[in-house]
Write a structure and sequence with these properties.
CATH architecture: 3-Layer(aba) Sandwich
Structural class: alpha/beta
Order of helices and strands: HHHEHEHEEHEEE
CATH class: Alpha Beta
Strand content: 15-25%
Shape: globular
CATH topology: Rossmann fold
Largest sheet: 7 strands, mixed
Oligomer: single chain
Length: 209
Amino acid sequence: MTARAALQTQLERGIAALGLTLPEDVVPRLLDYQALLERWNAAYNLTAVRDPAEMVTRHLLDSLAILPYVQGDTLADLGTGPGLPGIPLAIAAPGRQILLVDSNGKKVRFLREAIRALKLEGVRAVQSRVEEVEGQFDCITARAFASLEDMLGWGGHLLAPHGIWLAMKGRQPDDELPGVPDGFAVRGVHALAVPGLEAERHLVVLGRA
């Protein structure tokens, strides 16, 4: 079995374990993204995860675990790094306008190359601090980006009136919940089971109060 075939099997099993039904072209396109990230990572140090199988678990499946909660026509992924979870979400559920935001120039150069190479329609990358981004979005994602208080303090203006904010966390962030700023409310905290990942994962869903 080739290395890519092994990764494909791992990814397909993980998607099935998450209970997701995705279009046929999604798995090869996710693996194209993983291969591009692996190649650029050697020179640019975009992620601490080096092992391809770990990338499938920690990057692809971790991102796809929140797909059932994503909604609306527009999405902003704040502090996206090398495109997580924004690019896997764009590949798995195409059709919405997605803005990838990061302040790191190297990472944004990679994002622009990934958008071009993977032909991701409706996806844009911007190098900016979150506070300076303009617009409003139906859905906002942020993965291990900051505390809930800081996240909403910096980027709360980007959430559309009826939008949802999906904050990806490790352990259940009970200590952060009291810090949610006025004007926002926690709609739910969900434990996520990421196939192949031993560590805890939680999703905090927030909206406007």
